[in-house]
Give the backbone structure.
Amino acid sequence: MIGVALAPRDLAVAREFFELFKTAWEPVVSGKKYRVVIMTSGVSADVNADVMIIYSSRAEDIDRTLGLAVEASIAPDVRWDGQTLPIYGRAATFGVMPGARLTTDGKAAECRRRVAAGSIHRIGYDLFSEIAHLLTSGQPASHATTPTLELHIAFLRRSLVDAGVAFVEVPPRPQGYQFTCCLTHDIDFYGIRRHAFDRTLAGFVARASVGTLIDLCTGRRSFAQAIRNWGALLSLPFVFTGVMPDFWRPFENYAHADGGRKSTFFLIPFRARPGIGPDGSVEATRAVGYQASEIRQDAQAVAGRGSELAVHGIDAWRDAESGRAEMAELTSLTNRKSAGVRMHWLYFSPESPRRLEAAGYEYDSTWGYNETIGYRAGTSQVFRLADSQNLMELPLSIMDSALLFSGRLGLTPAEALDRCRPVVDNARRFGGTLVVNWHDRSLVPERLWDDVYRELLHAIGTSNVWFATAQEAVDWFRWRRSIRFSEDGSVFAGDRTNDGRATIPPAVLRVHRPGGSGEATFEEFCISGGESLAVAV
């Protein structure tokens, strides 16, 4: 059991941190002997431990004992293990120390010392303040590609291993898999026939004709793609008269593109409602030309094949009553009591978690970027949103429009895939859930982002990847949170079924033990759920 000595203000975020770094811990009990204690800034406690790991960005009493000269700075980027670890608050350095693993501007941001009672690892930033920032404010787009929270976990894990501490953890990946992948699709349009003589059709005609010619001349379109777009343009009279099928058919298109993998479709609840923006304005172009109840038969058919239907919310982010109405429109199709939600245009505010929870949603999947891809919260793990009791966030990792729209990153297909590969590699390294959002029109004229999607799925692969619906991924992480550790070394996990849904995969219990050569070794055990597992640590 890891003891944690912390200020009361940090207790809630510490609880969330140790659900992500799922290991045995407790707030320090005065006078109790621990193998290791983690202590935070300004905390005075009666601590009895062989190993002390002290996080603080300011000078502490222990620094004088260790003979450390503390220099403070604001929001530096530190280097660890060959990569940048962004720090969003204050940090402390301790001068030039050869061999320091955590550094900034050539100075050590950590110090390790042997003392009579054991060892001390002094780390120059405030861990729980950094975690709180990531899970509430999130990272700016400039650091979007850095899995910052996962690096904090990895650094603490490495510190425990280096100190020779035995501990247990439940990694954020189901047994037998490297990571979870959710293929999600925001359905903003359903059928081009709904858009006769409107702005959407005018934009399609312009991009499919002149826009395609310009793209062809500048090398952003192949000749085959140009032919597809011009062919679709010429087919419009036949599509609108019903002679030819509508080519905006997202359920059919993704049934083929996803190759039998499960999908989650976020459906707009109400037609012609733009909703209210964060600045109080109404943007007419946010309104769409269909609503969930109008495609009932198609939606129920795709749900019957194992895909999930969720809410693509309009005003749920700002108003619980609107959230309930939007969810009711969706659940009238699914006959379920609740649903997940992702906000249209990714609208969100600090009050949104409380409002979405009050509306009854099971999870949100809005946390991502419109302008780039990566880790807004510094992690791809499902986490509990602040200011809520039980609302889970399934963070968005990769979105097509962020990669390929000219007003955003505006990448070529090859550049987009190069940008995605590190995110996929991080999923293999850290686990978590890789959430991909490919929109309704992205496989067909005039966007034709189907080749990019196919290559992205190839990069993700099928071996050792659990393709789950968004709800299944949230269910697994919610079940992982139910795992409890006892002082006697036993581990208990609850049942793996949830509200009548399909059984989710088991988890892995990893037991780290100090090795004879100074390197730690670990064993892994399966946690199936509904059982208690006794493990000697």
The first strand starts at residue 2 and ends at 5. The chain has a mean pLDDT of 93. The chain has four domains: 2-168, 179-191+248-472, 193-246, 482-534.
